UniProtKB/TrEMBL annotation:
<dbReference type="InterPro" id="IPR022684">
    <property type="entry name" value="Calpain_cysteine_protease"/>
</dbReference>
<feature type="domain" description="EF-hand">
    <location>
        <begin position="40"/>
        <end position="73"/>
    </location>
</feature>
<dbReference type="Pfam" id="PF13499">
    <property type="entry name" value="EF-hand_7"/>
</dbReference>
<protein>
    <submittedName>
        <fullName>Calpain-D (Calcium-activated neutral proteinase D) (CANP D) (Small optic lobes protein)</fullName>
    </submittedName>
</protein>
<dbReference type="InterPro" id="IPR011992">
    <property type="entry name" value="EF-hand-dom_pair"/>
</dbReference>
<dbReference type="InterPro" id="IPR000169">
    <property type="entry name" value="Pept_cys_AS"/>
</dbReference>
<dbReference type="InterPro" id="IPR038765">
    <property type="entry name" value="Papain-like_cys_pep_sf"/>
</dbReference>
<feature type="domain" description="Calpain catalytic">
    <location>
        <begin position="164"/>
        <end position="329"/>
    </location>
</feature>
<feature type="domain" description="EF-hand">
    <location>
        <begin position="3"/>
        <end position="38"/>
    </location>
</feature>
<dbReference type="InterPro" id="IPR001300">
    <property type="entry name" value="Peptidase_C2_calpain_cat"/>
</dbReference>
<keyword id="KW-0645">Protease</keyword>
<dbReference type="InterPro" id="IPR002048">
    <property type="entry name" value="EF_hand_dom"/>
</dbReference>
<comment type="similarity">
    <text>Belongs to the peptidase C2 family.</text>
</comment>
<keyword id="KW-0788">Thiol protease</keyword>
<dbReference type="Pfam" id="PF00648">
    <property type="entry name" value="Peptidase_C2"/>
</dbReference>
<keyword id="KW-0378">Hydrolase</keyword>
<keyword id="KW-0106">Calcium</keyword>
Amino acid sequence: MATARKRLQQLFEKYDTSGDGVMSEDELVALLSNLLAIPESRARDWFKVADGNQDGVVHVHEFISWLTDNPPMHRVSEVITDGKKTVQASIVNTSGAVGQVFTFTIRNHHNVSFPKGNPITVAVKPGEEVTETLLHVDAEPFKYQCFPVTFRSDWTGVEDDPNAFKDMSFPHDDTSIVDPDRALNLGKTEQWMRGRMLGDPGNAVLFDRVRPQDVQQGAVGDCWLMCALGALATHPEKLKGLFDSKHVPEDGKYKVWLFDIYENKWVQVEIDEFLPCVIKDGRPSPTFARPLGNELWVPLLEKALAKFCGTYGKLNSGYPHWAFRVLTGKPDLITFLKQKGSWRKCRQGPVTKEESRNPRISNLKYCSWAQPVKVNSLNI
């Protein structure tokens, strides 16, 4: 399988005439026409299928997956077990080469219990079919929502590349995690591991289908940042533009663009791919933001912000408007604050150089020219 993937990647690069790591519709049509004599109209239909994230181009991982992969399947159903209603998940891993790890998260639930915790992670070997109990119904009426269901390639246990880039200015120890100014419980870090090594490294991608549900918070209290990332994910091309590359680089060196509020300009933050991890059920799991599936943009962007601010601990609590400014480069943003039953327009006042990289510094000033807006007059 690895050899086949390598050959398909070489074929992709041959027809990627622009050399930008993505294939346009015309380039894919040329490939299909030359190799398989596919009529142009059908080839253009196939392009739409191969363009999994619907961004108008086909990435190399989309091209390989389109030609080789059989996606794993799952089905959630309600059954009666020992006279009690139970919700089960039936999972089939159609791959004969790579194991898959499914994560089921139950939300908006009532009168149910979780015998194996919530969320629940299930590992499925190649070609295996398993059934796992997700929850028991304790009383009527009950409700639950199984969302989102995610899967990623299982950890292969392959050793890290000894030549992978390591950023010595953001070391793989507690000095990059702990906030020296605050005593915080930031979870447990047992080792630092390259993001691609969390599963099968051959399936790791920087971007797949960029969506708000890609954003999953970890042990640090940066919900304000996750909120901003989720909103920005509704504009995939803007978010992708923060990275210097659209693919997982071979050496694991990433360059991320962030906006320096004090300097009033974009700056480039260089990071490596190593993430703080804990070991759960024999598999590495990120201590902080978690990737959805095999894509890595969320934990890597969080790491870039951590380095920008000083440590992961510096991200514990903050303001979304700060994140929006740093991620979008907008020089000024309007924020509404509630005051005595009304909403007041505010904007951020001047900040010092040190304050500009502290997401906990609000420094919001009421706009004296703006009239308060009554809460019940807003369309929410």
